[in-house]
């Protein structure tokens, strides 16, 4: 698995999502909450809306437009209108660096 640095740990506020644009048009939301750091695809599966503009609570990120919330660990929606999960990505911390893997192993 290949990891890329997306930000430093001190750039992340508690429960305050940070949008990071990676190559190929991929945008992810980095979230620090409950002592952990998560990476989730930044686009809501219900509408083309940035999840990083939503609120974080109870290890979920809520879409600001229609209110669907997605589990930060699994990407699964907790209720309508979203019915499809969004991708989540492995995160590791090295010193103050937040690293995310967006590649699939063969």
Along the chain, the helix and strand elements come as EEEEEEEEEE
DSSP helical segment count: 0
* CATH topology annotation: Rieske Iron-sulfur Protein
Q: Walk across the major sheet and give the strand order.
A: 2-3-4-8
Rg, Å, rounded = 13 Å
In helices, the fraction of residues equals: under 10%
Which overall shape is indicated by the principal axes computed on the Cα atoms? globular
Mean pLDDT across every amino acid position: 93
Describe the structure.
The chain is an all-beta fold and 106 residues long. It has one domain (4-100): Rieske [2Fe-2S] iron-sulphur domain (Rieske Iron-sulfur Protein, 3-layer Sandwich), CATH 2.102.10.10. A hairpin with a 6-residue loop joins β6 (60-62) and β7 (69-71). It contains no helices and 10 strands. The termini are close together. The strands form 3 sheets. The chain has a 4-stranded antiparallel β-sheet with strand order 2-3-4-8, with no helix packed on it. A 3-stranded antiparallel β-sheet has the order 1-10-9, with no helix packed on it. Strands 5-6-7 form a 3-stranded antiparallel β-sheet, with no helix packed on it. 0% of the residues lie in helices and 38% in strands.
